[in-house]
Write a structure and sequence with these properties.
about 150 residues, 6 helices, mainly alpha, about 65% helix, single chain
Length: about 150
């Protein structure tokens, strides 16, 4: 991905939308489901129930694909962050950071190397818990333009 025309990333603009999925596939799947429910209610025959079953399957396949993509991304983030912790943090702090939850590691990936040790300490001490709290505490945002 080219860095041209990419605005600096921050907490306020880091959310990523995939237009085909978020604005086409998911809405059309919901329309299909509503249509199938109305047909099943109005006509109450085997054809409408097959249509309803198909609509439910389409929704479930879409959700499963999205969940699997996010799980794969989380695994990669965990691996990347563990390597980064080994390079940036003291050995003692890197060892303690192994106990961070996946969501905390996902949020910490936006922190610059300079502020990472302090933020990890705050998370381990329980002063920062949620992804939102961690992300809002980051001062020097490290952009991630390749997220799913």
């Amino acid at each position: 991905m080219s860095n041209e025309n990419i605005q600096p990333q921050s907490y306020s603009n880091h959310t990523r939308w995939f237009p085909l999925v978020h604005f086409v596939i998911f809405p059309l799947s919901l329309v299909l489901l509503v249509w199938a429910i109305v047909d099943a209610w109005r006509f109450f025959d085997s054809g409408s129930f097959k249509f309803l079953l198909l609509a439910v399957i389409v929704i479930l396949v879409n959700l499963a694909a999205r969940i699997q993509a996010l799980r794969a991304q989380d695994r990669l983030i965990r691996l990347e962050e563990r390597l980064r912790y080994a390079a940036v943090l003291s050995p003692e702090l890197a060892e303690r950071a192994a106990g961070l939850r996946v969501g905390q590691m996902v949020a910490l990936r936006f922190a610059s190397d300079a502020e990472l040790p302090q933020l990890v300490e705050e998370v381990l001490a329980g002063r920062l818990n949620t992804q939102k709290e961690i992300k809002m505490a980051i001062k020097d945002w490290k952009a991630d333009h390749f997220r799913v």
